[in-house]
Amino acid sequence: MPKVHRLRVHRRGFHVRATVFKRKGKTIHRKAFGVSPATFKIRDVGAVGRGKKIIPPLKKGGLGGVGYFKKSTMARRKLIVKLAKKQGEKTIGSRLSAIGVLTKRTHPHISHMAFADRHYLMGAMKGKTVVGYPEGFKRVR
Description:
Blueprint: E1 6-11, E2 14-16, E3 19-23, E4 26-30, E5 33-35, E6 38-43, H1 73-87, H2 89-102, H3 108-124
Helix pairs in contact: 1-2, 1-3, 2-3
């Protein structure tokens, strides 16, 4: 997987006034407070909902070792067909699909490669299952 990018976030300061309200029949007195402005770094996970809660973290080297996406197209495709014969077409296809979804916003180039490899894998195997490109993606030619 690629290096994790960190984003610098600027939070504006704000004040909350003192107030009185009822909760479960009891009167609550909240004191006034303020939050200072701050700058900090967060992990870039792309769009909302693309974090760890959707898909669990993938194991490193699940596609034949580290550096899978640095290999040439032919080398990658030979490797995934070989792995699919050992581990199963669905397992490898699911890993490629997960990588494609998780890197869609943060690393679009890797995402396109993952979806293209998955598309190739589904056609290269015996059943010739047709897998279309997901909605919202441009086909890489």
